[in-house]
From TrEMBL:
GO cellular component annotations of the record: glutamatergic synapse; presynapse
GO BP annotations, alphabetical order: dense core granule exocytosis; positive regulation of exocytosis; synaptic vesicle exocytosis
PANTHER family documented for this protein: CALCIUM-DEPENDENT SECRETION ACTIVATOR (PTHR12166), CALCIUM-DEPENDENT SECRETION ACTIVATOR 2 (PTHR12166:SF7)
Protein name (record): CAPS2 protein
Stored InterPro entries: CAPS, MUN_dom
MUN domain sequence ranges: 2-44
Length: 91
């Protein structure tokens, strides 16, 4: 059940980002998506979802896009993200 829920959540985010592939995300959209993706990943990992499901191709696509968007914002708007990042806090 949790695997399907997690996979479905990542698929929705991935599709939403794909629909906006040619657009840069607003800083508020980026901050919100980073929080959602990181929290979803951590919560489902705690629920016992397997690494293979957590680190799916869909998750990798979402993570890569948000990382690129984060880098763009950090160059164009230094204070925009206010410490919110895709990098894990335990790294």
């Amino acid at each position: 059940f949790f695997q399907q829920w997690y996979s479905g959540s990542m698929k929705v985010i991935s599709m939403w980002l794909a629909d906006r592939l040619d657009l840069q995300l607003h800083v508020y959209q980026l901050k919100t998506l980073i929080k959602i993706v990181k929290k979803t990943y951590r919560d489902f990992r705690l629920q016992g979802v397997l690494e293979g499901t957590l680190n799916s191709k869909t998750y990798d696509t979402v993570h890569s896009r948000l990382t690129v968007e984060e880098a763009t914002v950090s160059v164009t708007d230094a204070g925009g993200l206010q410490g919110i990042t895709m990098k894990d806090s335990d790294e």
